[in-house]
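This entry is listed below:
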Amino acid sequence: MTEDLSPAERYAAARIRAAEEATALAPFRELYEFGLDPFQIEACRALEAGKGVLVAAPTGSGKTIVGEFAVHLALRQGRKCFYTTPIKALSNQKYADLVKRYGADKVGLLTGDNSVNSDAPIVVMTTEVLRNMLYAGSQSLLGLGYVVMDEVHYLSDRFRGAVWEEVIIHLPESVTLVSLSATVSNAEEFGDWLDTVRGDTEVIVSEERPVPLWQHVMAGRRIYDLFEEESDHGGRGSARREVNPDLLRMARMENSRTYNPKDRRRGKMVREADRERERRSRNRIWTPGRPEVIERLDNEGLLPAITFIFSRAGCEAAVQQCLYAGLRLNDEEGRLKVREIVEQRTASIPPEDLHVLGYYEWLEGLERGIAAHHAGMLPTFKEVVEELFVRGLVKAVFATETLALGINMPARTVILEKLVKWNGEQHADITPGEYTQLTGRAGRRGIDVEGHAVVLWQRGMDPGALAGLAGTRTYPLRSSFKPSYNMAVNLVQQFGRHRSRELLETSFAQFQADRSVVGISRQVQRNEEGLEGYREGMTCHLGDFAQYAQLRRDLKDRETELAKQGAAQRRAQAAASLEKLKPGDVIHVPTGKFAGLALVLDPGVPGGRSNGHRGYEYQEGPRPLVLTAERQVKRLAAIDFPVPVEALDRMRIPKTFNARSPQSRRDLASALRTKAGHLVPDRHQRGRAAAADDREIARLRAELRAHPCHGCDEREDHARWAERFHRLQRDTKQLERRIEGRTNTIARTFDRIHALLTELDYLREDEVTEHGRRLARLYGELDLLASECLRAKVWEGLTPAELAACVSALVFEARQSDDAVAPKVPGGAAKAALGEMVRIWGRLDALEEEHRINQAEGGVGQREPDLGFAWAAYQWASDKSLDEVLREAEMPAGDFVRWCKQVIDVLGQIAAAAPKEDSTVAKNARKAVDALLRGVVAYSSLG
């Protein structure tokens, strides 16, 4: 090609090449065996030009290369680079990658568990560690040139997202920020905010996957393409993706299998032919079993594969099913290699613990090339699975969605069993963003020509909806930022109250709220124009029709209010009558599914507490358990008794009566019909309507009749315009309230927190008190509760094991709340201290309510401490065996280790924050850390 260029063009090209070779990017590119993609080059050039960058690109596209270039620039310039990640596993993995390239002397690691070479020029850390360093004014920040925030889209996380914004806002201006994000639909909006708070920021968005992804549905023995490609569709010269007609036909066939009354009139031969056709089609459509899926993919050359199952138990069951099916994905050489690696990585675990951890069953699966991966597993076991998968020695992994969060574990194929998952409250459809995140694992760069996403056919599946999921890239970044107590004291300590308030106003949360107000303001303007038109339409020549319309509304509102009062009064009378019922009363149920004669077995009157934070059974009033004349035993509700009920008669209920015995119910129902079948209940007489005697209604009616507009011939036309005016005016006021509610929301929350902390003597305007300085060192969801416990000396005199039990209540949250069973807790001083912690929380909860700090809405307040891990923490810190602790806790090893590490983290904070004189807490907190950090809890590796 160069021969075709003129001398001037060749000279210009040579100058461009020389200029490129003089940049830091040229030697960096030589570190990689493959060429960089355009988006990576664009981002690296922006970085070298001194700009911050936001890179939004699909999973597996190589975003981290931009982060690694920031490391390269820092070393070249003699400055520091901090590489932050959202989870410890990712930090460990990145640390190992950077050590391999730059050597252990230049790379450090800081997580809650590990501190390695923290003064190195490159330090990998979790985002929380950097936040804590910023608030503490750490000397490590000196000479910091670059901060890489990997997986920055985590700032949407409801529980931890605020940390990302705190770091972005508080980093020194001299630091260049590199933000790496998954593909989000509002990257430009996020980039605009970064531009505002960090200065010149280049937004680079890449929608292109490095490895093409093919979407499939597996039904029965067949794998169908989700889309059929139609090129030059309609002569427009462009390709268009249509849903595979075979899948649509299958869905229609399945949905049409409903009873049709006309079928009865069709001939017997025709009906039998239809049934035969249906039988054949059903033989083709079924949800294949897990071993069947893996075997099919193996035959098609589509392994290694990750199957996402939204349940830990489901992942473990899947491995067992594959083992029982005799599935073997490794040959003898692979099996021996697996055993060698596993034995080497687990050598430090005592043999007695291996049995408790299910090691031998786990090893058998690994040797066959099959494994589970979820948060309930021991961290060491998860790391081994990851290593073997990357090496190609594990070919089928059954994982929960946590695996999709950044771990470098790509596969050729990703399988989704279902498109519904439990979100903590209900079973909900997965979002397009979640679908993109999960299927993003398919296709290994540099290994696979294409990746594959396979969704298993489920009854009632809609291929069109699945195509919508697969074809949508909407994953908006939504801020979850809110001020916390710890944040408030740290900000006031560094900047004073006024400046802190201004800083919080610069958060992404406020930025988004302010932008959303623009659209609402436009709607208000349009509504005001509409109100002018309606005002003209209701103008009456006889008088002020707005005044007349208001009288009509007042009258209607008063009538509605009286009707509601009457209904409430009748409900109260009915509830009062239910409370008088006794076992053996014969009643007549006036309405509902079980209307008619009934015998009261249990009046269902609340006997216990009727108020409190935990749920109670009869918040809707008495719920009598009755036996109906039709032999049914049912618990009725207030809705079944719109009018008061009285006992018609009484009957003796035999002591031998068993509500679960059909014979017992039959005999008693027969006796009920014999004794009371002839009784007719008194008809309930409804009293005179309250509206008939209401003075206010009489006054309003008189004023209406006397108003000049009452005699207008066009009165009802005017009234219709007036009603439209009123509705639009009401909507406009609601919009104005929304604008008011969204403006300065973060600052208002900060003001409330400041007021509460001032009342508790943590703050005095711009001054942070001794108590406030202690709170500034306590991070976590229950920071204020921990500080108040130290202040009240709740933990003084406790043993290290008892202190571990109490601190566990500050971090533990049960996966599913179980109010029926009280958790087991240690006795003695620990039990008293836990009780006092709950009482202090109750006081703080009331104070938060008084200051309008709503935990449910803003997520700011202190949740109730959970005592569910106290006994396990106490046992483990008391040197009990792993077998005994896990058996009593009924908890997977991975969860146990994770909670122990979180307890250790908070104990470390308490040791630093507790008074050093006249206190045993600091010393015992350090001893508790030593007591917990043993055995499985201590088996944390560096990747």
About this structure: The longest helix spans residues 545-579.
